[in-house]
Amino acid sequence: MLSSVEALPGAEFREETGSTLSNMGIDGVKKIIEDIKTAGGGCFFIDEAYQLADSRNVGGSMVLEYLLAEIENNRGVIVFIFAGYRKEMEKFFEHNPGIPRRIPHTLSFTDYEDEELLEIFTRVIYKKYGGRMKLEDGPKGLYRGFVISVIGIIAYRASYFGMFDTGKAFLFPDAKKANFFVMWGFA
Predict the structure, then answer these.
(1) Which member of 12, 17, 99, 128 lies 3.0 to 4.6 Å from 42 by CB, making a disulfide possible if both were Cys?
(2) What is d(CA 176, CA 14) in angstroms, rounded to the nearest whole number?
(3) Residue-level pLDDT at 109
């Protein structure tokens, strides 16, 4: 998209995780950046970028310091996108005082609410089955049915095994010597 509106000269796209970049080291990251530049520019998307700022990850810190310099050196050629979970990314931005200056724009996405996930599920089912699949009481009925089933299974298993273990202790004080068929019948 950025190249189509001429915000970037090229359309190359690379995606890596912070841990992968840590393992690649500076030489591996240099190669990725050179590949993007050779293709005319583009986007370098770094998922779970907070892994680079982990204090236990010396290689990640060195890669991050290198990337910060490359952000400055490649303005207008490469867009660097650092992505990750909100809390971890807050620590990422605290890792080096230069990070917020070099990465001045942030986007935060809120987590889906239960109702939104249910709506997504409903749309997927409708799309897959073309409306041929009917759920009694709609998707909320399916959700309620699932919850009550889980509660029932837990209650059944808890009472069954609890009663079996309690009764076994009274009826068969030495379970190793008890007749297998008698114990099977009791179960």
Answers:
(1) 12
(2) 63
(3) 82
Domains of the chain: 12-102 (3.40.50.300), 114-186 (no CATH)
Cα→Cα distances 96→42, 54, 104, 152, Å: 25, 12, 13, 52
Q: Is 21 exposed, middle or buried (0-12, 13-18, 19+ CB in 10 A)?
A: buried
Do 50 and 88 touch, CB atoms closer than 8 A?
A: yes
**In the prediction, which pLDDT does 97 show?**
81
- The 10s digit of each residue's pLDDT in 42-82 is 999 999 998 988 877 778 889 988 998 898 888 889 989 99
Percent of the chain with pLDDT over 90: 21
Evaluate whether 29 touches 40 at the Cβ level (below 8 Å). no
Beta-bridged to residue 85, according to DSSP, are: none
111-141 residue pLDDT tens = 888 888 888 878 887 888 887 766 666 666 6
Spell 6-19 as b/e; 16+ CB within 10 A means b: eebbbebeeebbbb
Q: How distant is the alpha carbon of residue 94 from its chain centre?
A: 22
